[in-house]
Design a protein that fits this description.
A 4-stranded parallel β-sheet has the order 2-1-3-4, sandwiched between helices. The chain is globular and about 65 Å long. The longest helix has 13 residues. It contains 5 helices and 4 strands. The chain is α/β, with parallel strands linked by helices.
Length: 136
């Protein structure tokens, strides 16, 4: 079974995400970027993508926005039994999918949760001195 990862996005986010992953994990011949630009359509890109899928492939289809045009069009591929569509892609998610082999549904749910958990708001902790007045 060959793992293939397809990134679909508005504009060049998919290309940039692939390049970022390759900067960390090395060249990825099994990762493909499909970018929706003003001169193409979601339907055309997904049809083109579908031509690269074989029934023996394990396919992960990562979209930029849940409910976005690329995600919605990619949903037409869910009739194929070997496709997992995930919306809200990020670098953590992509790297974990690239680096794991033979991903089960349970492992995929863990990978998705880890990608969600990797999103946080950075805050500077307050130091209790001078009754909290920084400038005193």
């Amino acid at each position: 079974m060959t793992k293939k990862v397809f990134l679909v996005s508005h504009n060049k986010l998919a290309e940039g995400l692939k390049k970022s992953a390759e900067m960390i994990a090395g060249k990825q011949d099994n990762v493909y970027a499909y970018c929706l630009m003003e001169d193409n359509s979601p339907n055309g890109l997904i049809k083109e993508l579908k031509q690269q899928i074989k029934k023996e492939d394990q396919v992960f289809l990562l979209a930029d926005i849940v409910g976005g045009s690329m995600y919605n069009e990619a949903m037409t591929l869910l009739s194929l039994p070997n496709i997992k569509l995930i919306g809200g892609m990020n670098l953590s998610l992509l790297l974990n999918i690239i680096l794991h082999e033979d991903i089960t549904d349970e492992q995929l749910l863990t990978i998705i949760q880890e990608a969600k958990d990797g999103i946080s708001l950075a805050q500077i902790p307050l130091v209790a001195s001078n009754q909290g007045n920084f400038f005193s």
